[in-house]
From TrEMBL:
GO terms of molecular function: GTP binding; GTPase activity; signal recognition particle binding
Organism of origin: Paracoccus contaminans
Family (UniProt): Belongs to the GTP-binding SRP family. FtsY subfamily.
Protein name: Signal recognition particle receptor FtsY
Region (Disordered): 1-20, 28-91
Bias kind Basic and acidic residues: ranges: 1-12
Gene: ftsY
GO biological process: SRP-dependent cotranslational protein targeting to membrane
Positions of GTP binding: 170-177, 252-256, 316-319
EC annotation from Swiss-Prot or TrEMBL: 3.6.5.4
Function of the molecule: Involved in targeting and insertion of nascent membrane proteins into the cytoplasmic membrane. Acts as a receptor for the complex formed by the signal recognition particle (SRP) and the ribosome-nascent chain (RNC). Interaction with SRP-RNC leads to the transfer of the RNC complex to the Sec translocase for insertion into the membrane, the hydrolysis of GTP by both Ffh and FtsY, and the dissociation of the SRP-FtsY complex into the individual components.
One CC-aspect GO term: plasma membrane
Subunit structure: Part of the signal recognition particle protein translocation system, which is composed of SRP and FtsY. SRP is a ribonucleoprotein composed of Ffh and a 4.5S RNA molecule.
Phylogenetic placement of the source organism: Bacteria, Pseudomonadati, Pseudomonadota, Alphaproteobacteria, Rhodobacterales
Membrane topology type: Peripheral membrane protein
Length: 365
């Protein structure tokens, strides 16, 4: 299955929320024409169906209208005679009330207040007073989201420098280990040699999980005794990657935000140590974020930018969450490159971020 098909299929919680929200925004319109009175209920009770037929002849069925010959337009466009034209699409005049509904819906879909306001204002431009249908509104929103996301959709840059050092940061459980595993196997498949360092030395489970991913990807995973200094592991991993001429060194790190000062010192020490071997390292510092945390992802970016020199984002778990809109808020607020998104737990469930595909899938187009 292509990644686009997966994205469409698995982003459904977010897209159906937004798609249904937009349908609702348009249907909030007061109808111009009062609705026709409801037809009178059928006189015969339902149980009459089971009663024996009365002896009298049933009333004659109304005569079928004479077969109408289609008009010129009907014949031109192949419309069959007698077939009713589709009911007109509901439309709503774009006014302040509709913009307010749209803004509320976007906030509820995790785009955040500032981004929702900006997106709404841009959609309003040149459309005020026009009667808009839900598909038109969806297209306008998708175009606006694509515009915001195009500025940040950038695959992980690869440099000729060997080894290219990729430091991976993020809170526990955000998907760092899984992302490293998926990226490592994709780089391997592209013919690159990779070394992984299991830098969260305090969590035995995290180290084991990384070893499993390493085995799957055919990539060596360097580990250190539990609780030992991650910076000394990073030094050894750097030495091995240099000795083997590896293309990439990916370093996993701890994500304990409970003690920020410790974590900051730990990350700073890793960076100091690898810079002794290569002053230009790390070449990328990837922050991994979990989409299911919604607006919390924004404060994680703020925190980690203080702890490390974050160069790009990876957003995981876009499958199974209705909070995918937070990616738009992140792009709009920070402008950091979004390198990849994850939509599942398998190796090929991570791919480069494509602004257009994402915008269309998110809006349900
Ligand atoms: N559904 C889904 N699950 C994911 C995705 N990425 C990671 N996961 C799952 O999220 C859980 C946490 O992922 P990890 O990779 O262990 O996260 P971590 O940041 O390394 O966390 P620690 O090991 O606790 O430091 C695991 O069960 C993963 O299988 C994704 O894109 N979609």
């Amino acid at each position: 299955m292509s990644f686009l098909s997966k994205l469409r299929e698995r982003l459904t919680k977010s897209s159906s929320r937004i798609s249904a929200g937009l349908d609702e925004v348009v249907s909030e319109a007061r109808p111009d024409i009062p609705p026709a009175p409801a037809p009178a209920p059928l006189a015969a009770p339902a149980r009459a169906m089971a009663e024996p037929s009365p002896p009298a002849a049933p009333p004659a069925a109304p005569a079928a209208p004479p077969a109408a010959r289609p008009g010129l337009m009907g014949r031109l466009f192949g419309r069959e005679p007698g077939r009713e034209a589709a009911p007109p699409e509901p439309r709503r005049e774009l006014d302040d009330a509709m913009l307010e509904d749209l803004e509320d819906m976007l906030i509820a879909a995790d785009l955040g207040t500032d981004t929702a306001l900006r997106v709404t204002a841009n959609i309003a431009e040149g459309r005020m007073g026009r009667r808009i249908s839900a598909p038109e509104l969806k297209q306008a929103l998708a175009d606006e989201i694509e515009r915001i996301m195009s500025a940040v959709a950038r695959p992980l840059p690869l440099y000729p420098k060997k080894p290219q050092v990729v430091l991976v940061v993020g809170v526990n459980g955000s998907g760092k280990t899984t992302t490293i595993g998926k990226l490592a196997s994709q780089f391997r498949a592209a013919g690159k040699s990779v070394v992984i360092a299991a830098g969260d030395t305090f969590r035995a489970a995290a180290v084991e999980q990384l070893q499993v991913w390493g085995q799957r990807a055919g990539v060596p995973v360097m580990v250190a005794p539990q609780g030992s200094d991650p910076a000394s592991l990073a030094w050894d991993a750097m030495a091995r990657a240099e000795a083997e001429g590896a293309d990439l060194l990916m370093i996993d790190t701890a994500g304990r935000l409970q003690n920020r000062a410790d974590l900051m010192e730990e990350l700073a020490k890793i960076v100091r140590v690898i810079r002794k071997k290569d002053p230009s390292a790390p070449h990328n510092t990837l922050l991994v974020l979990d989409a299911t945390t919604g607006q919390n992802a924004l404060s994680q970016v703020e925190t980690f930018r203080k702890l490390a020199d974050v160069s790009g984002l990876v957003m995981t778990k876009l499958d199974g969450t209705a909070r995918g809109g937070v990616l738009v808020a992140l792009a709009d607020r920070f402008g950091l490159p979004i390198h990849a998104i994850g939509v599942g737990e398998q190796i090929d469930d991570l791919d480069a971020f494509d602004a257009r595909e994402f915008a269309q899938a998110l809006v349900g187009l």
